[in-house]
């Protein structure tokens, strides 16, 4: 589990660096040092997780690694939320709001207090992680490439489904309504219109997609609903297999692309479908074009739609045929 948590954390850090958020807040170097230390720790996690069953000290060390990764992930969420708050203030418009926003700029008192508070958290985080990194040397752990089983465990840990697992969900009613209406009102002449939900990790993109997917109006509007958790593997063959599996179409053996595409055509032809592609990271335009062309060639009903969730604005710009739905932080009232 520690390896999976650290891997996702490093992906979140990478996303932060792409947004250059660290340099804006003034902690860019601290984040890079933490990322480097976590990368070094991750190199021995596969060995540590194998040995933890016979060494309680290593098991305790893995727990410390996981706790540290979760703590840093919480800190990253604070950075992201602070950045979104500043963006929202600046987008309100009007001379009064502009003056108000300028008072809360990076030179303002509020941001100065935030930077000081976060700098203290980062210092404590760095000290904790340095101790954990030093402690690993006591165990003489080897650097190992993750086994197939470990990679499968990580993929399973990151998998999502269309089932809503949270008992209560607050603050996303307006977002849900906007996305539902956009899907239902998709232009009748548009085949495979692509809607995107974009937002930072932890804001609830998957939860919002689940709410939309299970809405009664969506169920009534579409003949077929399909949910695929994508994550990192965006190969055409894997994607078609996952779509067919979600559509309850059996795929026997290791079929090549041609028979898979024929099965896809049979599954979607003459139907208005909704396809959710959750958690996309790939920025490969060619891979997306191949998948979309395969979907368009299926002869589905007009009004079919694809709903994509991603952290990356570049993915949304590559895939989306409509303006993205930018998911913001929840207010204190929500």
Automatic annotation (TrEMBL):
Keyword Repeat: yes
GO molecular function: ADP binding; ATP binding
Residues in Disease resistance N-terminal domain copies: 5-93
GO process terms (BP): defense response
Record key words, sorted: ATP-binding, Nucleotide-binding, Plant defense, Repeat
Gene3D superfamilies the UniProt entry points to: 1.20.5.4130, P-loop containing nucleotide triphosphate hydrolases
Keyword Repeat belongs to the record: yes
Residue stretches making up the NB-ARC domain: 173-334
InterPro entries assigned to the protein according to its UniProt record, in alphabetical order: NB-ARC (IPR002182), P-loop_NTPase (IPR027417), RX-like_CC (IPR038005), Rx_N (IPR041118)
Listed name of the protein: Disease resistance protein RGA3
Organism: Arachis duranensis (Wild peanut)
Gene: LOC107487005
């Amino acid at each position: 589990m520690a390896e999976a948590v650290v891997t996702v954390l490093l992906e979140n850090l990478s996303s932060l660096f792409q947004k250059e958020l660290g340099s804006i807040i003034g902690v860019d170097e601290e984040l890079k040092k933490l990322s480097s230390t976590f990368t070094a720790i991750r190199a021995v996690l596969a060995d540590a997780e194998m040995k933890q069953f016979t060494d309680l000290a290593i098991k305790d060390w893995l727990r410390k690694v996981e706790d540290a990764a979760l703590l840093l992930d919480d800190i990253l969420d604070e950075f992201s939320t602070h950045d979104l708050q500043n963006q929202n203030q600046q987008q309100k418009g009007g001379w009064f709001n502009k003056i108000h926003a300028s008072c809360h700029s990076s030179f303002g008192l509020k941001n100065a207090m935030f930077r000081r508070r976060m700098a203290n958290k980062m210092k404590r985080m760095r000290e904790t992680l340095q101790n954990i990194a030093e402690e690993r040397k006591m165990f003489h752990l080897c650097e190992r490439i993750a086994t197939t089983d470990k990679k499968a465990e990580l993929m399973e840990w990151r998998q999502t489904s269309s089932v809503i697992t949270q008992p209560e969900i607050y603050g996303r009613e307006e977002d849900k309504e906007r996305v539902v209406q956009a899907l239902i009102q998709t232009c009748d002449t548009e085949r495979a219109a692509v809607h995107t939900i974009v937002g930072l990790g932890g804001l609830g993109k998957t939860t919002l997609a689940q709410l939309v997917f299970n809405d009664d109006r969506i169920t009534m509007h579409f003949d077929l609903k399909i949910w695929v958790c994508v994550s990192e593997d965006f190969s055409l063959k894997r994607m078609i297999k996952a779509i067919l599996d979600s559509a309850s179409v059996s795929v026997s053996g290791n079929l090549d692309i041609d028979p898979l595409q024929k099965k896809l055509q049979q599954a979607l032809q003459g139907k208005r479908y909704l396809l959710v592609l959750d958690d996309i990271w790939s920025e490969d335009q060619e891979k997306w074009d191949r998948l979309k062309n395969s979907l368009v060639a299926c002869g589905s009903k007009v009004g079919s739609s694809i709903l994509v969730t991603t952290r990356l604005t570049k993915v949304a710009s590559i895939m989306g045929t409509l303006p993205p739905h930018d998911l913001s932080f929840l207010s204190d009232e929500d």
